[in-house]
Amino acid sequence: MDVSIVIINYNSTDYLLKCLDSIFRFTKEISFEVIIVDNASKVFDEKFILSKYQGIRIIKNEQNVGFAKANNQGFNLANGKYTLFLNNDTILIENTIKNVFDFAEKYNHDVFVGCQLLNSDYSKQESVVEFPNVWNGFTENFFLYKIFPQSKIFNKYYQNEIELTNPIEVDVIKGAFMFCSSESIRKLNGFDERFFFYSEETDLCFRFKKNGGKIYFLPKEKLIHFGGVSTDNNLWFKFKNQTIGKIQFYQKHFNGFRFIAILIIHFCGLFLRGILFSIIGLLTFNKSVFLKGFYFFKQLFVYPKNLFCES
């Protein structure tokens, strides 16, 4: 088996079906299997999916176990030389998986590979990012990345702002499309299940590179990623878990002064955004913007228990 495709679904079956249609339409010249892990969706027609598509296995969880654990559940069934962790709100528009497979084969297999994510209007979406550190935490929280979008110094997302034509080595590929050596994932013991939702891919990439792995971004390989379909209807769930994920990454990989500094910067950024969004929301009578301001303030009181003390 060349590639095992692991897809997590949570209350987004319509998007899942579109994703599956695109996989079976565009993926040619390689052998693949699809493993779906459903995180206790309210509506999920397992029989329909199994009758419509061949080569699919399904795990149905009785509760939402989180993104990291669900991915590990799917990976534990994987038979492929490579495993593609693919979001259910993605749509392939070309034979991307085969092209990425060919690239990985040329680089001695032990690689992670990401591709260019596109919005529904085919505009570019952020697809790669640098690892968190104190400096780029400062530049992000105080909006320097917005002022200097193409600066490597001031914008940890700068690789998304410049025109790229050739594969480049990067720090983090977004979890919407993570093409990985299955053997490497086994050596890493998969995703760290202490991360529930957000930052789990950053942690996985960090551990992989720390062990000498190479992570590549292929700008010519593209797919559509709608983004946020499982969380946009519950904005506080999204905001809260983004903060929890960030802080958990700091707890696991930072210590001493670096940990204190990045934490202070993080909370200063939340406070600043709370003020700005609240003022803009009031001045424009925009309820959704004002609500975001409220949620930024609310995040100031979110601090997860440190689960990494013995890591």
Automatic annotation (TrEMBL):
Mark the transmembrane ranges: 259-285
Recorded hits in InterPro entries, A to Z, give:
Glyco_trans_2-like, Nucleotide-diphossugar_trans
Domain Glycosyltransferase 2-like, which positions? 4-149
**Which Pfam families does the protein's record reference?**
Glycos_transf_2
Tagged with keyword Transport: no
Q: Which Gene3D superfamilies match?
A: Spore Coat Polysaccharide Biosynthesis Protein SpsA, Chain A
Q: Which domain of life is it from?
A: Bacteria
Q: Does the keyword Magnesium apply?
A: no
List UniProt keywords, sorted A-Z. Membrane, Transmembrane, Transmembrane helix
Name by which UniProt lists this protein: Glycosyltransferase family 2 protein
State the organism of origin: Stygiobacter electus
